[in-house]
Design brief:
- With 536 residues, this protein is mainly beta.
- It folds into two domains: 5-281 and 304-435, TolB, C-terminal domain (Neuraminidase, 6 Propeller); 440-522.
- The chain has no helices and 41 strands.
- Strands 3, 4, 5, 6 and 7 form a five-stranded antiparallel β-sheet that branches.
- The N and C termini lie far apart (98 Å).
């Protein structure tokens, strides 16, 4: 496994009126995949070659879309505390082990979920805090049916919950390093006045940010963070700096040795990054491992953070000292000088009804015009945005559409093995796929003389793609030239330039020199000139 060190992020704050110099296809549409899942908040694909989509239902189930149809039996059902539309409780995250579905590899039947449970915290002592815990669990697929999971799970980590069912985070993904990453929110107190997000140790909910590690009462930890753990190494006694497991008990995870706070006393070793309000939805860029986080703001700004694998930036992301790039004006503002922090890559204000960013994905799928764009949404305004960098990595965006379907509409994204992007409409119970019929052009092959060109039929190619033809002269003939579509000839292969309009490839064949068996070479026959006729 390789470390994911802090990385350098190029930063731009962007306003509501900035438009990106980019082209979203005019026929881009949201194609319905299923409209039969209660409160979907995300889509996952296990990269097992099955083509199945696993839809996360906030109401406590995972449903499978297989061969285009929603299977009637849930893959998994867990008891959750789900507050209904607009809340951030219930079933929140799903991640398949990187080896899932790969015969002969360890852990190839395992997956992980995050949920808010148990319901009610009754009897007393059931929960670590005053509200339902945020629980990370491991499950395995049934040995008899790949479309049904074994319902018996194993608790891996518990995070104490507050009495407010908001700001839980709860999204999980495996990184390219093989470690499991998990987001957690600050617990939902207005203005983050408990100071959970900036505290690296255990802390009471006393409204006093200065009591980090020293207050009395119920202790909270790992709130407002991005966590990173090794779920493949299990069974060793938990150390006192492992905040998600009982000290001395056999832990269901280990701490990566290069986590930033390993070796520091009275800091939670699971912490990878901190200073988040509610990193509700986030993702890895499958092309380069960049970490993209949508962090929901308080009263003024929504922010998108990016962290690359080689960053040397601070580990603190600002909350509750800052909201976006602005100083947060709460009753417990941070004292000057502010600690070093990473400003957002992008931020936008609460104009209109915007109020909660839904982090998405950097598109790496089969729609060429979208490749490299970052797609995100606002749950309150039902807007969908596309962002793209310029040549100097300065990011800007354009609003693609506004469906005005109400609060909590677009609450999660997902991608499949091919990179297709999906969007969950939580209130309507719909999962969409971003779909575009690509612009195509026709390349027509043509022959002059005696020879062949393969393929010999008209080729339909996507805009910007190239096509290769093989040319073969008949006996006694040679290739005299190939032209058209801006291509180049290498031996018998002619490859066009990227095609941006209909065009024709012409292969011309001419009679070549002939060699007789006696070794004499004669020139190709010539056509005698026709005598001119003159009038007398």
């Amino acid at each position: 496994m390789h470390g994911f060190a802090a990385l350098q992020a190029v930063v731009l704050a962007f306003g509501a009126g900035v438009a990106a110099a980019q082209s979203v296809p005019s026929d881009l549409a949201l194609e319905t995949v299923t409209d039969q899942v209660e409160a979907p908040i995300g889509v996952r694909a296990p990269h097992d070659g099955s083509g199945r989509l696993f839809v996360i239902s906030q109401a406590g189930t995972i449903r499978i879309v297989k061969d285009g149809a929603l299977l009637p039996t849930p893959f998994l059902q867990v008891p959750v505390t789900y507050p209904g539309s607009g809340g951030t409780g219930g079933l929140l995250g799903l991640a398949f082990h990187p080896n899932y579905g790969k015969p002969g590899l360890p852990h190839n039947d395992e997956f992980y979920v995050v949920s808010i449970r148990p319901p009610g915290c009754s009897p007393p002592g059931t929960c670590l805090g005053v509200g339902p815990d945020e629980v990370l669990e491991r499950y395995v697929v049934s040995a008899d049916d790949a479309d049904v999971a074994d319902p018996a799970g194993t608790v891996v980590m518990r995070i104490a919950g507050t009495n407010v069912q908001f700001h839980n985070g709860g999204d999980i993904h495996f990184g390219a390093d093989g470690y499991l990453y998990m987001s957690s929110g600050d617990g939902g107190q207005e203005g983050g006045t408990n100071g959970f997000a900036e505290c690296l140790w255990k802390k009471p909910a006393d409204g006093n940010p200065a009591s980090c590690g020293s207050g009395t009462g119920v202790q909270y930890f790992l709130r407002g963070k991005m966590l990173r753990i090794d779920v493949d190494t299990r069974g060793a006694p938990a150390t006192s700096d492992m905040c998600g497991a009982a000290t001395g008990a056999a832990a269901e995870y280990a701490i990566p040795p290069d986590n930033p706070f390993v070796g520091s006393s009275q800091t939670c070793d699971e912490i990878f990054l901190y200073g988040f309000r509610n990193p509700w939805r986030w993702s890895f860029d499958r092309a380069n491992g960049d970490l993209w986080i949508g962090d929901v703001g308080q009263d003024q700004f929504e922010e998108i953070d990016r962290r690359t694998p080689d960053s040397s930036e601070p580990l603190f992301y600002g909350w509750h000292c800052l909201e976006g790039t602005a100083r947060y004006n709460s009753a417990n503002v941070c004292a000057d000088p502010l600690p070093p922090s990473v400003p957002p890559l992008m931020e936008y204000g609460h104009s209109g009804v915007r109020c909660a960013v839904t982090g998405g994905y950097r598109f790496r799928g089969p729609i060429p015009a979208l490749v490299g764009m970052y797609v995100f949404a606002d749950s309150c305004s039902s807007e969908i945005f596309f962002a793209k960098p310029d040549a100097e990595d300065v990011w800007s965006y354009e609003r693609w559409r506004d469906d005005a379907n109400g609060y909590g509409t677009y609450s999660g994204f997902g991608e499949d093995e091919a990179g297709n992007l999906y969007l969950a409409n939580t209130d309507a119970g719909i999962v969409y796929r971003f779909h575009s019929q690509p612009t195509t052009h026709q390349v027509t092959p043509s022959v002059v003389g005696s020879g062949s060109i393969t393929p010999s039929t008209v080729q339909t190619v996507n805009d910007g793609e190239a096509v290769t033809f093989l040319v073969q002269p008949d006996p006694g003939y040679v290739v005299d030239g190939v032209s058209g579509c801006g291509g180049t000839l290498a031996k018998d292969a002619y490859t066009t330039a990227p095609v941006t309009a209909d065009c024709t490839v012409v292969a011309t064949f001419a009679v070549g020199d002939r060699l007789f068996a006696d070794g004499f070479e004669v020139a190709a026959p010539t056509v005698p000139a026709v005598p001119s006729t003159q009038s007398h």
